[in-house]
Amino acid sequence: MSSNSEPQNGEEHGALATVFSDTEDFVTFVIADQLFGIPVLKVQDVLSAHNITRIPLAPPEIAGSLNLRGRIVTAMDVRLRLGLPPKERSSSMSIVAEHDGELYSLMVDSVGEVLALNASDYERNPPTLDPKFRDYSAGIYRLDEKLLVVLDVNRLLDYERVQAA
User: Structural domain boundaries of the chain?
Assistant: First the structure.
């Protein structure tokens, strides 16, 4: 009888693994009243306002650099990167993400919660998505009364794109 119960337990664990693999966790944040998300596995840290040192001749979306536990981190104003108007940064939040072995602080208006979303609810970018977001969006999720735009961190932080923007 133990041989019958073992496969059942294995099947049960396999079913649980399937359930977990069908969801993805996203760190959510808001910029200009739009909800965005980044896969949680791309996020290294979340920071409150930091002292940022301006970098001369840097593109406008590069706000400067900051020291994070002894490591120099490039701070990017995601609002400007997306082509939105600038905002006074009295108390901004940042999401720290890694790209090509470097850390970047993504300055956002506010950081929300971590959402576990079903992969089956994921949609490609609709034609009605704001063109400012389309280049950096990996897709969307339609939530109750909001649209979550999933940002592609690699495209957002692509240095050649930053220089060309």
Answer: 24-164
Instruction: Please report, as a single letter, which amino acid is at residue 71.
Output: R
Least confident range from 29-38, 45-54, 72-81, 111-120: namely 45-54
Class of domain 24-164: mainly beta
pTM of the shown model: 0.81
Q: Please, what sign has the CA dihedral across residues 62, 26, 122, 128?
A: negative
